[in-house]
Amino acid sequence: MDSKVFLDANFLLDFLLKRKGYDIAFQLLSLAQKRKIKAFTNPSIIQTISFYLQKNFDPTISKVLLLELLKILTIVETDQETILNALNSPIKDIEDAIHYYTVLKHQLDYLITNDIDFLKLDSSLISIKTPTDFLKLFQD
């Protein structure tokens, strides 16, 4: 299985801050580290998680954590066309819409999130899964 997965901020924060969901996040990121899946995110998610990292760690540790994370993640860009598509979409949460259309643009297979509202956007165009549900698919 060579799935391309987009990782949302809440998922990455569960891992980096060792919150509830850390173990599942660790398993999924281990798959990316072993190159069994390809993991992606975008700059706005890196900005979001860096904000929370710096609330919990000093800047040096925050940078080290991000640098380690970027060894296994690929950053995909979100261009103006993608943002316009998001803003013109029926999706109410602008940030979620931008991520949704970023995933579409880059033809990624899954969007991994723990955001309950984001999960409701699951469609025939994008498969949006919790980390647990994705791991179940991967193990089947």
Automatic annotation (TrEMBL):
Protein origin, superkingdom? Bacteria
Q: Which Pfam families did the record assign?
A: PIN_3 (PF13470)
Q: Where is the PIN domain?
A: 3-120
Q: Which Gene3D superfamilies match?
A: 5'-nuclease
Query: Which SUPFAM superfamilies does the protein's record reference?
Result: PIN domain-like
Protein's UniProt name: PilT protein domain protein
Q: Where does this protein come from, organism-wise?
A: Pseudopedobacter saltans (strain ATCC 51119 / DSM 12145 / JCM 21818 / CCUG 39354 / LMG 10337 / NBRC 100064 / NCIMB 13643) (Pedobacter saltans)
**Lineage, opening ranks:** Bacteria, Pseudomonadati, Bacteroidota, Sphingobacteriia, Sphingobacteriales
